[in-house]
Structures are given as C-alpha cells and as structure tokens.
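Tip: read the tokens left to right.
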C-alpha cells in the first residue's frame, strides 16, 4: 500500500478555459517537484475526492489532449 503525501500543501489551479465554473478539474502542480505526483480534483467539489497521478502519466495525458489524441473536446 502506498501512502499519499499530505495534500494540505497543494496549491490548486483552475484552468483558464474553465470560464464561469463549467466542468473543470484543478491540478496541484506544486507537488510534482516534491513528490512526483499530480493530484487532481473537481473544481465544483473542492472538498470531494482527489485523484492522484504519477507526474509522467499526467504529462502524457495533457500532451495527448493538446494534440487531439482524444478527438474534439
């Protein structure tokens, strides 16, 4: 079992594409250097669950989205 780091140090950032609160996620990129992870939460439910991804996997996902790897979003 892997223990998660204390997420109280997370600095959540909302995408500039989120507009007026639509369907958006907030990553905490400041934990990449500290722990090699990217926690992600739902911007509409900041007290809700958090998904944690290895930094490399999150970077690959973002690159695939930017290149159109998932079709039109």
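Filled-in amino acids:
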């Amino acid at each position: 079992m892997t223990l998660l780091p204390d997420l109280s140090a997370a600095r959540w950032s909302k995408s500039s594409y989120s507009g007026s609160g639509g369907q958006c996620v907030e990553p905490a990129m400041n934990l990449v250097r500290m722990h090699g992870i990217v926690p992600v939460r739902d911007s509409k439910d900041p007290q809700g669950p958090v998904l944690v991804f290895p930094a490399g996997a999150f970077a690959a996902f973002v690159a695939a989205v930017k290149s159109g790897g998932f079709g039109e979003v």
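Residues 23-66 form one domain. The mean pLDDT is 85.
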